[in-house]
What we know:
The protein is of the alpha/beta class. 40% of the residues lie in helices and 25% in strands. The chain is built from twelve helices and 17 strands. The protein has helices at 4-39, 46-57, 63-87, 120-128, 141-149, 169-177, 212-217, 219-223, 236-246, 257-262, 310-320, 353-365, and strands at 98-100, 110-114, 134-138, 155-162, 166-167, 181-189, 193-196, 207-210, 229-232, 251-255, 266-269, 279-286, 290-292, 297-303, 325-332, 340-347, 368-375. β15 (325-332) and β16 form a beta hairpin. α2 packs antiparallel against α3 and α11 (310-320) packs antiparallel against α12.
Amino acid sequence: MIDLKESRKNIDEIDKQIVALFERRMVEANAVAEYKRETGKAVYDKEREDEKLENLRNLSSNPFNRRAITELFSQIMSISRKYQYGILPVMEKLTDYVKKEALPVAKDMKVCYFGVPGSHTQQAMEDFFCEGVCGVPCPTFQDVMEAVEQGTAMYGVLPIENSSTGGITANYDLLLNYSNSIVGQYVNRIDQCLVALPGAELSQIQKVYSHMQGLLQCSGFLQEHPDMVQVECADTATGAKKVAADGDRTQAAIAARRAAKEYGLEVLAGSIQQEKNNSTRFIIIGREPIYLADSNKIALCIELSHECGTLYRLLSHFLFNDLNMTQIESRPIKGKNWEYRFFIDIEGNLEDPAVQNALRGIQEEAKSIRILGNFNS
């Protein structure tokens, strides 16, 4: 029978040797970094690493060890790269973002928001800025983006994620089509109500209007009323506006109490969303790439090579630099079936050394990276 105590003792001794050899290896990695510092050579040399991994695999004695050796040395080389990123001087500017003491404001500045008056987005805009702000309603997400990029509005407000239904994918895609930056965010508690004309009864309702997100958030309530036909609108407040304009007591909308008040409707059923803590995260976009000294969240869009392990290696930069990732959303790349780009939020500020180290590594190893914003969560 195997002596477990003796085997553990032997493993402990081998592990000590591995640690000593690892430290020797990192000394040599430092020498390599010095060479790259003098020559301006890139840290990441994929061809060299692939060749080295193949040579190391060939030294192993069985198929399991071949895979294990590949994983082990991939990690060791990844750690070596991260070390080199940290000690090498920055050869090029990581970002064009400029630090400001506060968000720039102007007299009578215009802020565009998605939807019509009475929408959740309008509420988020007023809560983030102030009730006296000059809000301009826009019928589409794209209209908000264009108004900001063209300078007809100083800022724009868009929904980006709901706590129960997930990301607003259309807005993730739009972020890449415009040069605007995320300069802030606001999380708004969403209380969905069934609203109708004064005097209407719940039993009368045959058709319900709302934005797709409103319908999804209230799917449980709608399942309890299967005779209600669901009709998708541009936004929840637009549904309320239509009900008021049509003057039909068989129609209702899923919208905010604010929208009911705006269009002279009554609440037939309140808080009908499935998640009682239902919240939506809104982003505030601006034309200029700016961030504040106390900004603590960074939004990124990263495109990777369509190869095994690339996402794993990407995420390792956050782990190595002790950065907390708060969100990840994948979106298909147009024209490339089954290939994706990743929208990622991490905690941190662009001035943080750990953030700079992670971004430097990702910048060198990913196909592309774009910083979408650094703002307060």
